[in-house]
Design brief:
Strand order of the largest sheet: 8-11-14-17-20-25-28-31-34-37-39-40
Structural class: alpha/beta
Radius of gyration: 24 Å
Helix content: 10-25%
Number of helices: 4
Number of strands: 40
Strand content: 25-35%
Largest sheet: 12 strands, mixed
Protein backbone atom coordinates (compact mmCIF):
# COMPACT_ATOMS: atom_id res chain seq x y z
CA UNK A 1 0.00 0.00 0.00
CA UNK A 2 1.51 3.31 -1.10
CA UNK A 3 0.78 6.76 0.28
CA UNK A 4 2.17 10.08 -0.90
CA UNK A 5 3.60 13.01 1.01
CA UNK A 6 0.41 15.05 0.58
CA UNK A 7 -1.73 12.32 2.18
CA UNK A 8 0.73 11.94 5.04
CA UNK A 9 0.91 15.69 5.66
CA UNK A 10 -2.89 15.94 5.70
CA UNK A 11 -3.16 13.04 8.16
CA UNK A 12 -0.51 14.51 10.48
CA UNK A 13 -1.30 18.19 10.00
CA UNK A 14 2.24 18.75 8.75
CA UNK A 15 4.00 21.11 6.33
CA UNK A 16 5.65 19.70 3.20
CA UNK A 17 9.08 20.84 2.04
CA UNK A 18 9.78 19.20 -1.30
CA UNK A 19 7.75 17.01 -3.66
CA UNK A 20 4.16 16.43 -2.39
CA UNK A 21 3.62 13.56 -4.84
CA UNK A 22 6.52 11.32 -3.74
CA UNK A 23 5.22 7.98 -2.43
CA UNK A 24 6.32 5.53 0.26
CA UNK A 25 5.23 2.00 1.10
CA UNK A 26 7.14 1.28 4.31
CA UNK A 27 8.90 2.89 7.28
CA UNK A 28 12.62 2.57 8.07
CA UNK A 29 15.20 3.86 10.54
CA UNK A 30 16.90 7.04 9.35
CA UNK A 31 20.32 5.37 9.18
CA UNK A 32 19.01 2.74 6.76
CA UNK A 33 16.42 4.67 4.74
CA UNK A 34 16.01 3.72 1.07
CA UNK A 35 13.88 5.06 -1.80
CA UNK A 36 10.23 4.25 -1.14
CA UNK A 37 10.61 4.40 2.64
CA UNK A 38 9.71 7.02 5.24
CA UNK A 39 12.01 7.88 8.14
CA UNK A 40 11.82 10.28 11.06
CA UNK A 41 14.28 12.46 12.95
CA UNK A 42 13.40 13.19 16.58
CA UNK A 43 16.75 12.82 18.36
CA UNK A 44 19.41 15.45 17.46
CA UNK A 45 22.22 12.90 17.78
CA UNK A 46 20.97 11.26 14.55
CA UNK A 47 20.95 14.52 12.58
CA UNK A 48 24.03 13.61 10.53
CA UNK A 49 22.10 10.71 8.94
CA UNK A 50 19.60 13.18 7.49
CA UNK A 51 22.17 14.56 5.05
CA UNK A 52 23.04 11.13 3.62
CA UNK A 53 19.62 9.49 3.93
CA UNK A 54 18.17 7.98 0.71
CA UNK A 55 14.60 7.74 2.03
CA UNK A 56 11.82 9.37 0.03
CA UNK A 57 10.26 11.19 3.01
CA UNK A 58 11.57 12.22 6.42
CA UNK A 59 9.43 13.53 9.29
CA UNK A 60 11.09 16.28 11.31
CA UNK A 61 10.04 18.57 14.15
CA UNK A 62 8.82 22.02 13.19
CA UNK A 63 11.51 23.55 15.41
CA UNK A 64 14.30 21.79 13.48
CA UNK A 65 16.18 23.59 10.68
CA UNK A 66 18.61 21.52 8.54
CA UNK A 67 22.16 22.83 8.41
CA UNK A 68 22.81 21.29 4.98
CA UNK A 69 20.84 20.42 1.85
CA UNK A 70 18.75 17.25 2.06
CA UNK A 71 17.45 15.04 -0.75
CA UNK A 72 14.29 13.53 0.83
CA UNK A 73 11.00 15.39 0.97
CA UNK A 74 10.57 16.74 4.50
CA UNK A 75 7.33 16.93 6.43
CA UNK A 76 7.43 19.23 9.45
CA UNK A 77 5.24 18.19 12.38
CA UNK A 78 4.86 19.23 16.02
CA UNK A 79 6.40 16.02 17.34
CA UNK A 80 8.11 13.65 14.90
CA UNK A 81 8.19 10.73 17.35
CA UNK A 82 4.45 10.90 18.05
CA UNK A 83 3.71 11.54 14.37
CA UNK A 84 5.44 8.36 13.19
CA UNK A 85 3.39 6.33 15.70
CA UNK A 86 0.22 7.84 14.26
CA UNK A 87 1.45 7.15 10.73
CA UNK A 88 2.28 3.51 11.50
CA UNK A 89 -1.25 3.11 12.80
CA UNK A 90 -2.60 4.54 9.53
CA UNK A 91 -0.44 2.24 7.39
CA UNK A 92 -1.37 -0.77 9.49
CA UNK A 93 -5.06 0.03 9.12
CA UNK A 94 -4.70 0.37 5.35
CA UNK A 95 -2.82 -2.94 5.03
CA UNK A 96 -4.79 -5.09 7.43
CA UNK A 97 -8.27 -5.54 6.05
CA UNK A 98 -10.50 -6.91 8.78
CA UNK A 99 -12.04 -10.31 8.19
CA UNK A 100 -15.66 -11.19 8.83
CA UNK A 101 -17.64 -14.32 9.51
CA UNK A 102 -16.57 -17.54 11.16
CA UNK A 103 -14.46 -20.46 10.05
CA UNK A 104 -16.26 -23.79 9.60
CA UNK A 105 -14.12 -25.35 12.34
CA UNK A 106 -14.84 -22.61 14.89
CA UNK A 107 -17.21 -23.46 17.74
CA UNK A 108 -19.60 -20.68 18.75
CA UNK A 109 -22.20 -21.54 21.39
CA UNK A 110 -25.80 -21.04 20.37
CA UNK A 111 -26.38 -18.57 23.22
CA UNK A 112 -23.29 -16.46 22.35
CA UNK A 113 -23.95 -13.09 20.73
CA UNK A 114 -21.61 -11.80 18.03
CA UNK A 115 -21.82 -8.22 16.79
CA UNK A 116 -21.75 -7.13 13.18
CA UNK A 117 -18.44 -7.67 11.42
CA UNK A 118 -17.00 -10.10 13.99
CA UNK A 119 -14.46 -12.68 12.75
CA UNK A 120 -13.94 -16.05 14.45
CA UNK A 121 -10.97 -18.01 13.08
CA UNK A 122 -10.38 -21.75 12.67
CA UNK A 123 -10.64 -23.90 15.81
CA UNK A 124 -11.55 -20.95 18.02
CA UNK A 125 -14.04 -21.59 20.83
CA UNK A 126 -16.65 -19.08 22.03
CA UNK A 127 -18.57 -20.24 25.09
CA UNK A 128 -22.15 -19.95 26.25
CA UNK A 129 -23.68 -16.52 26.96
CA UNK A 130 -20.56 -14.74 25.73
CA UNK A 131 -20.95 -11.35 24.02
CA UNK A 132 -18.52 -10.08 21.38
CA UNK A 133 -18.78 -6.48 20.10
CA UNK A 134 -18.74 -5.25 16.52
CA UNK A 135 -15.69 -5.74 14.29
CA UNK A 136 -13.73 -7.71 16.87
CA UNK A 137 -11.23 -10.19 15.40
CA UNK A 138 -10.85 -13.57 17.11
CA UNK A 139 -7.92 -15.44 15.60
CA UNK A 140 -7.45 -19.24 15.36
CA UNK A 141 -7.17 -21.41 18.47
CA UNK A 142 -8.54 -18.77 20.84
CA UNK A 143 -10.54 -20.00 23.84
CA UNK A 144 -13.25 -17.71 25.22
CA UNK A 145 -15.11 -19.17 28.19
CA UNK A 146 -18.69 -18.90 29.34
CA UNK A 147 -20.18 -15.49 30.08
CA UNK A 148 -17.23 -13.45 28.78
CA UNK A 149 -17.86 -9.92 27.49
CA UNK A 150 -15.59 -8.50 24.76
CA UNK A 151 -16.09 -4.99 23.38
CA UNK A 152 -15.90 -3.54 19.89
CA UNK A 153 -12.87 -3.39 17.57
CA UNK A 154 -10.73 -5.73 19.64
CA UNK A 155 -8.03 -8.06 18.30
CA UNK A 156 -7.58 -11.39 20.08
CA UNK A 157 -4.49 -13.11 18.63
CA UNK A 158 -3.97 -16.89 18.29
CA UNK A 159 -3.85 -19.04 21.39
CA UNK A 160 -5.29 -16.47 23.81
CA UNK A 161 -7.32 -17.95 26.68
CA UNK A 162 -10.03 -15.84 28.34
CA UNK A 163 -11.67 -17.65 31.25
CA UNK A 164 -15.30 -17.48 32.30
CA UNK A 165 -16.95 -14.19 33.19
CA UNK A 166 -14.05 -11.88 32.32
CA UNK A 167 -14.73 -8.49 30.75
CA UNK A 168 -12.72 -6.87 27.96
CA UNK A 169 -13.45 -3.28 26.85
CA UNK A 170 -13.39 -1.66 23.40
CA UNK A 171 -10.31 -1.31 21.19
CA UNK A 172 -8.20 -3.79 23.15
CA UNK A 173 -5.39 -5.94 21.74
CA UNK A 174 -4.47 -9.23 23.41
CA UNK A 175 -1.40 -10.94 21.97
CA UNK A 176 -0.74 -14.62 21.38
CA UNK A 177 -0.63 -16.94 24.36
CA UNK A 178 -1.93 -14.48 26.94
CA UNK A 179 -4.15 -15.93 29.68
CA UNK A 180 -6.87 -13.76 31.17
CA UNK A 181 -8.69 -14.97 34.27
CA UNK A 182 -6.68 -17.97 35.46
CA UNK A 183 -7.00 -18.71 39.17
CA UNK A 184 -5.17 -16.49 41.60
CA UNK A 185 -2.44 -18.14 43.65
CA UNK A 186 -4.49 -18.59 46.80
CA UNK A 187 -3.83 -21.49 49.21
CA UNK A 188 -4.49 -21.79 52.95
CA UNK A 189 -2.04 -23.82 55.07
CA UNK A 190 -3.57 -26.66 57.06
CA UNK A 191 -2.49 -28.37 60.30
CA UNK A 192 -0.90 -31.30 58.48
CA UNK A 193 1.36 -28.99 56.46
CA UNK A 194 -0.56 -29.27 53.21
CA UNK A 195 -2.35 -26.41 51.45
CA UNK A 196 -6.06 -26.08 50.75
CA UNK A 197 -7.00 -24.21 47.59
CA UNK A 198 -9.01 -21.03 48.16
CA UNK A 199 -11.70 -20.76 45.47
CA UNK A 200 -11.13 -17.80 43.16
CA UNK A 201 -14.65 -16.55 42.54
CA UNK A 202 -13.95 -13.17 40.93
CA UNK A 203 -13.10 -12.06 37.40
CA UNK A 204 -10.66 -9.91 35.42
CA UNK A 205 -11.83 -6.60 33.97
CA UNK A 206 -9.77 -4.94 31.23
CA UNK A 207 -11.06 -1.50 30.30
CA UNK A 208 -10.94 0.27 26.91
CA UNK A 209 -7.80 0.84 24.80
CA UNK A 210 -5.55 -1.62 26.62
CA UNK A 211 -2.88 -3.84 25.10
CA UNK A 212 -1.77 -7.11 26.70
CA UNK A 213 1.51 -8.66 25.53
CA UNK A 214 2.22 -12.23 24.44
CA UNK A 215 2.23 -14.87 27.20
CA UNK A 216 1.22 -12.37 29.85
CA UNK A 217 -1.03 -13.77 32.59
CA UNK A 218 -3.66 -11.83 34.54
CA UNK A 219 -5.22 -13.81 37.40
CA UNK A 220 -8.86 -13.54 38.41
CA UNK A 221 -9.59 -12.11 41.83
CA UNK A 222 -10.51 -14.11 44.90
CA UNK A 223 -13.63 -11.92 45.10
CA UNK A 224 -14.58 -8.91 43.00
CA UNK A 225 -12.27 -8.14 40.09
CA UNK A 226 -8.64 -7.82 39.11
CA UNK A 227 -8.80 -4.46 37.30
CA UNK A 228 -6.75 -3.16 34.37
CA UNK A 229 -7.90 0.40 33.79
CA UNK A 230 -8.20 2.16 30.45
CA UNK A 231 -5.12 2.78 28.34
CA UNK A 232 -2.81 0.35 30.19
CA UNK A 233 -0.06 -1.26 28.08
CA UNK A 234 1.45 -4.51 29.33
CA UNK A 235 4.49 -6.04 27.62
CA UNK A 236 5.15 -9.75 27.09
CA UNK A 237 5.67 -12.26 29.92
CA UNK A 238 4.14 -10.24 32.75
CA UNK A 239 2.43 -11.78 35.79
CA UNK A 240 -0.45 -9.83 37.35
CA UNK A 241 -1.77 -11.60 40.44
CA UNK A 242 -5.27 -11.71 41.91
CA UNK A 243 -7.06 -8.53 43.06
CA UNK A 244 -4.38 -6.24 41.57
CA UNK A 245 -5.48 -2.84 40.25
CA UNK A 246 -3.38 -1.14 37.56
CA UNK A 247 -4.27 2.53 37.04
CA UNK A 248 -5.05 4.11 33.69
CA UNK A 249 -2.30 4.77 31.13
CA UNK A 250 0.33 2.83 33.06
CA UNK A 251 2.97 1.03 30.96
CA UNK A 252 4.89 -2.03 32.20
CA UNK A 253 7.81 -3.77 30.48
CA UNK A 254 8.46 -7.49 30.14
CA UNK A 255 9.00 -10.02 32.94
CA UNK A 256 7.53 -7.82 35.63
CA UNK A 257 5.71 -9.60 38.47
CA UNK A 258 3.01 -7.95 40.60
CA UNK A 259 1.87 -9.83 43.70
CA UNK A 260 -1.71 -10.03 44.90
CA UNK A 261 -3.89 -7.12 46.06
CA UNK A 262 -1.37 -4.43 45.08
CA UNK A 263 -2.79 -1.17 43.75
CA UNK A 264 -0.76 0.65 41.11
CA UNK A 265 -1.57 4.29 40.33
CA UNK A 266 -2.22 6.07 37.06
CA UNK A 267 0.45 6.91 34.45
CA UNK A 268 3.20 4.82 36.05
CA UNK A 269 6.16 3.44 34.05
CA UNK A 270 7.92 0.21 35.04
CA UNK A 271 11.04 -1.20 33.39
CA UNK A 272 11.71 -4.87 32.74
CA UNK A 273 11.90 -7.49 35.50
CA UNK A 274 10.40 -5.25 38.17
CA UNK A 275 9.09 -7.13 41.21
CA UNK A 276 6.35 -5.76 43.46
CA UNK A 277 5.32 -7.40 46.72
CA UNK A 278 1.68 -7.93 47.64
CA UNK A 279 -0.82 -5.61 49.35
CA UNK A 280 1.11 -2.44 48.44
CA UNK A 281 0.03 0.93 47.08
CA UNK A 282 2.07 2.63 44.32
CA UNK A 283 1.44 6.37 43.80
CA UNK A 284 0.44 7.92 40.46
CA UNK A 285 3.28 8.69 38.06
CA UNK A 286 5.80 6.40 39.76
CA UNK A 287 8.73 5.27 37.60
CA UNK A 288 10.57 2.05 38.46
CA UNK A 289 13.79 1.25 36.63
CA UNK A 290 14.60 -2.27 35.41
CA UNK A 291 14.87 -4.96 38.11
CA UNK A 292 13.62 -2.67 40.86
CA UNK A 293 12.18 -4.58 43.82
CA UNK A 294 9.39 -2.82 45.70
CA UNK A 295 8.70 -4.04 49.24
CA UNK A 296 6.79 -1.12 50.77
CA UNK A 297 4.24 1.50 49.76
CA UNK A 298 5.26 4.38 47.50
CA UNK A 299 3.25 7.39 48.63
CA UNK A 300 4.74 10.38 46.78
CA UNK A 301 3.65 10.88 43.19
CA UNK A 302 6.01 11.16 40.24
CA UNK A 303 9.14 9.77 41.90
CA UNK A 304 11.77 7.53 40.28
CA UNK A 305 12.97 4.43 42.15
CA UNK A 306 15.89 2.06 41.55
CA UNK A 307 17.40 -1.05 43.09
CA UNK A 308 16.16 -3.83 45.35
CA UNK A 309 14.82 -2.91 47.79
CA UNK A 310 13.83 0.08 45.66
CA UNK A 311 14.84 3.55 46.86
CA UNK A 312 14.68 6.97 45.22
CA UNK A 313 17.09 7.07 42.29
CA UNK A 314 19.33 9.89 43.59
CA UNK A 315 19.75 8.07 46.90
CA UNK A 316 20.53 4.90 44.96
CA UNK A 317 23.19 6.70 42.88
CA UNK A 318 24.81 8.18 46.02
CA UNK A 319 24.75 4.79 47.74
CA UNK A 320 26.26 3.09 44.72
CA UNK A 321 29.07 5.64 44.63
CA UNK A 322 29.83 4.89 48.28
CA UNK A 323 29.75 1.13 47.65
CA UNK A 324 32.23 1.48 44.78
CA UNK A 325 34.52 3.74 46.80
CA UNK A 326 34.47 1.27 49.68
CA UNK A 327 35.28 -1.61 47.36
CA UNK A 328 38.19 0.26 45.77
CA UNK A 329 39.75 0.95 49.19
CA UNK A 330 39.82 -2.77 49.92
Amino acid sequence: MEVNAKQIAEHLGGEIIGNPDVTVSSVARIESGKPGTLCFLANPKYEHYLYTCKASIVLINKSFEPKEAVSPTLIKVDNAYEAVASLLDLLNTMKAARRRGRAWSAHVAFSARLGKGVYVGPNAYVGKKTTVGRNTQIYPLVYIGEGVTIGENCIIYPGVKIYRGCKIGDNCIIHAGAVIGSDGFGFAPTEDGSYKKIPQTGIVTIEDNCEIGANTVIDRSTMGTTLIEKGVKLDNLIQVAHNVVIGSNTVIAAQTGIAGSTKIGRSCMFGGQVGIAGHLSIADGTKLTAQAGVQSDIKEEGKVYMGSPAIEHMNFIRSYALFRRSGMKK
